[in-house]
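Fill in residues.
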């Protein structure tokens, strides 16, 4: 079994790389990216101030908008579009050096040497040949932390170059990048929102198993009775209603300002100025008060699936020959059901645990939007609309890892409840 799980873990690597590479390429090729949006905002701001004129810079191809060439160069460098797409992906992974602390240089026609201040009290001597750039410090030593290249040679003989430092920094080193929208590290943007989705996801998952498994057992043992019929109707009516739609109905019926003014209209908890004044017990009650309706909406869609799966699995096992043999030996119904049939009936439930974890913890944008919860799903969806590539890819990394780990957890659960399974 150990060898099997080692192979499964090793297979996670190509699966992860394939998933991330596919989404990375799609995002990079999708029109309306962050560069285009930034240029549009800059142009709209300039137009509103009446500052656009033909003297501000070179004309961009494909439109009548005007931006300085130096600004376009800086924007391309900031968003990483000055590199080919394969190199951008390797930089994002952290296996290709990332350029940092750029310093632009300009050699006048006929000029071959420059002295450049690069900060921290350091000056570098730069000497260019035809297509190369030699960098030395004040002592004449070639520094290992600075590199350079010639970017462009103009028709008048002016040479544009750049020097920079490099570092290996990507998701494999724990750096998910900096959000274009929030101007903060992606981990700092994601952490509080991920905690919210974990709270709702795990709460709903635990509640689902605590209700669906006993309900499915009860329905199986009372198959064909009025209880079975009425509970099936209720469960499938709930299944037919999307969680976000049910959330809206619950807010109308029980939210603030409604006829039954029982629960707040949304939010993860009370506003911070109120939250900080509450005692620890009041904080628990306030959190539960805000969580009841979202958790119901979060998990309603899985109730019918899990309940029916539990019921059908138990009914199938109760009709097996080994169960009839156990009854023939004089074993009590309680022992036959709970000892012999129950363990095999839990196998389909165990097989879905990884899928349930992956779906629930990743969050639900629509439910979070209905209840005004700033969670993980809402963040990921908004990042896609804003073309915030670092957050979108960071969201992808978390979701893919959760799904891959969930699959392994499903295998472990299967091996635990079914001793017949032998992983080879």
């Amino acid at each position: 079994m150990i060898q099997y799980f080692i192979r499964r873990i090793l297979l996670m690597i190509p699966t992860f790389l394939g998933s991330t590479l596919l989404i990375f390429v799609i995002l990079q090729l999708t029109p309306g990216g962050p560069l285009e949006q930034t240029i549009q905002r800059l142009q709209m701001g300039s137009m509103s101030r009446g500052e656009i004129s033909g003297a501000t810079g070179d004309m961009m191809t494909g439109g009548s908008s005007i931006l300085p060439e130096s600004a376009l160069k800086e924007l391309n460098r900031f968003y990483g579009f000055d590199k080919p797409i394969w190199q951008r992906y390797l930089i994002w992974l952290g296996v290709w050096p990332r350029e940092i602390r750029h310093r632009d240089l300009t050699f006048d026609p006929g000029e071959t040497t420059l002295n450049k201040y690069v900060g921290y009290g350091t000056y570098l001597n730069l000497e260019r040949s035809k297509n190369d750039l030699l960098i030395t410090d004040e002592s004449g030593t070639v520094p290992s932390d600075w590199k350079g290249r010639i970017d462009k040679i103009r028709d008048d003989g002016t040479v544009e170059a750049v020097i920079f430092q490099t570092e290996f920094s990507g998701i494999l080193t724990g750096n998910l990048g900096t959000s274009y929208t929030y101007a903060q590290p992606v981990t700092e943007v994601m952490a509080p929102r991920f905690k919210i989705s974990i709270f709702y996801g795990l709460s709903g998952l635990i509640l689902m198993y605590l209700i669906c498994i006993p309900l499915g057992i009860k329905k199986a043992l009372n198959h064909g009775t009025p209880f079975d019929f009425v509970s099936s109707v209720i469960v499938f009516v709930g299944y037919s209603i999307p969680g976000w739609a049910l959330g809206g109905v619950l807010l109308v019926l029980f939210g603030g300002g409604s006829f039954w003014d029982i629960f707040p209209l949304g939010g993860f908890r009370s506003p911070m100025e109120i939250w900080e004044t509450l005692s620890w017990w009041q904080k628990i009650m306030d959190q539960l008060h805000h969580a009841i309706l979202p958790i119901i909406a979060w998990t309603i869609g899985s109730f019918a699936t899990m309940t029916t799966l539990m019921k059908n699995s138990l009914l199938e096992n109760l009709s097996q020959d080994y169960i009839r043999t156990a009854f023939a030996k004089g074993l009590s119904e309680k022992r036959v059901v709970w000892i012999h049939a129950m363990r095999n009936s839990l196998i389909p439930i165990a097989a879905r645990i990884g899928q349930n974890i992956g779906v629930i913890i990743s969050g639900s944008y629509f439910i979070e939007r209905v209840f005004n919860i700033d969670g993980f799903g809402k963040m990921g969806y908004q990042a896609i609309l804003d073309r915030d590539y670092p957050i979108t890819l960071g969201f992808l990394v978390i979701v893919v890892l959760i799904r891959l780990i969930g699959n392994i957890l499903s295998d472990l659960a299967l091996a635990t409840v079914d001793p017949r399974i032998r992983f080879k």
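The chain has a mean pLDDT of 81.
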